[in-house]
């Protein structure tokens, strides 16, 4: 691995320490690009697992017991989310525990959350519904309800793998406009969110997030890549997963488009989203570990994206802000909220990708 990626990983890990000192028992959400000060949440919301995951990655990087204890304490603060009505429990509890390795407490928290998610699955809809814990309508299917959730359900004991496969493939039906999805004209090949109308018993695409939401495409590719690495559990239909990955990569231009895409691909002159790029890089590194003739291409593209992120969007310190900030993440383009900021999940996936390149983690297990 290059000296540049080693320096970048060191800077990102140091940034984790600086952030931990600043936020205390709160959870970082996004940081101001001018000075690096974090906007935080008290309970973590849907992003809390990424902060716990960053702390676990730092503990692996340093090998220090104090860092391990800090990661475990943060993870424990997420426990109340296990019973919350939200499919983002996959993001919270998979990414908040997977980097912990064989830590017994992490395994116990993950198992409890997995069991609660399995119990909340709707067999008629074939999914774990989006839920209403974060506000809005409960009966949604969203692409960000798939990564982490599939892996979590697959480990939920009897019935878990089947529920995981159903959750994944039903989202593919709906979000990629496949037969049996919705009754509209399927003019958009990618639909990040759909709402179930109980009166008509039909799924209807939502206007927000828009079909060009680049982070949505990255989230779904990540979920598909993870499922392809678990053929005995959540994959269900490996050929279909390979087709879904190919569609996302080609129609979404994830192999040929700019390494850092616009937050909304329909607005090429709008804000870009480095967090979408970091998620895509990790998904590609995972796909590179699956059988197939394009593994080397996936690995090279994943490394190319990471290289662009660290060379063009990672702070080097000075100018009143700390080193190791991944800038130009876009929290919400439509609302003009934090459109050029450091995002905690962007940091996590950048750190995970760099850690995988340096052999610090097994990318197939996190």
Q: What key phrases describe this protein's structure?
A:
mainly alpha; 366 residues; globular; 3-stranded antiparallel beta sheet; 9% strand; 46% helix; 12 helices
- The assigned structural class equals mainly alpha
**Strand line-up of the largest beta sheet:** 2-1-8
- Mean pLDDT over the residues: 94
Radius of gyration: 19 Å
Contiguous uncertain segments of 5+ residues: 179-186
In sequence order, what are the helices and strands, one letter per element? HEEHHHHEHHEEHHHHEEEH
- Strand-residue fraction? 5-15%
Principal-axis shape equals: globular
- Which percent range fits the helix content? 40-55%
Tally of helical segments = 12
- Sheet with the most strands? 3 strands, antiparallel
Number of β-strand runs:
8
What is the end-to-end distance?
Answer: 20 Å
How would you describe this structure to a colleague?
The protein has 366 residues and is mainly alpha-helical. 46% of the residues lie in helices and 9% in strands. The protein has helices at 3-23, 48-62, 65-77, 89-95, 104-120, 149-154, 160-175, 214-228, 238-251, 274-287, 295-312, 344-357; strands at 27-31, 38-41, 140-142, 193-197, 202-205, 314-318, 321-326, 342-343. The strands form three sheets. A three-stranded antiparallel β-sheet has the order 2-1-8. A hairpin with a 4-residue loop joins strand 4 (193-197) and strand 5. The longest helix is centred in the N-terminal third of the chain and has 21 residues, at 3-23. The protein is globular, with a radius of gyration of 19 Å.
